[in-house]
Design a protein that fits this description.
Elements lengths: L2 H22 L5 H28 L3 H22 L4 H27 L8
């Protein structure tokens, strides 16, 4: 799988998960939550593609931790610059949304890393 396909596939998953979480946290309508999730994740993926992608893709758990930390910072700043909600709501929403998306990525990474070949003999 090429690096572009890797990031586009994960981008769609993360945007969907985070938009649903934002909508359930009463960020706004689902459409509003989806647009804001697209904007904040576009800002994150742009930075990843410009410099951090090789570090994150091949580093295992450390790369996932680096991605989650970077994503929290960039997405919080992006939503703060929109000035649509108070900072406490922005920070709590970004923390919960990123926790859900990082759990999704960690589960997927574990499934790729674990060897289940001997399980069904």
């Amino acid at each position: 799988m090429s690096i572009a396909t890797f990031f586009v596939f994960h981008f769609v998953q993360i945007v969907l998960v985070e938009s649903i979480v934002m909508w359930r946290l009463k960020w706004g309508t689902y459409r509003h939550s989806l647009v804001d999730a697209l904007m904040m994740n576009f800002a994150s993926i742009l930075g990843l593609l410009l410099g951090l992608a090789p570090l994150i893709r091949g580093a295992g758990p450390f790369g996932l931790m680096l991605f989650c930390t970077y994503s929290l910072m960039v997405e919080t700043v992006t939503l703060m610059l929109l000035e649509r909600h108070p900072w406490r709501k922005v920070v709590s929403t970004v923390l919960i949304a990123n926790l859900c998306s990082c759990v999704l990525l960690a589960g997927e990474s574990f499934m790729n890393w674990a060897d289940f070949s001997g399980l069904f003999r």
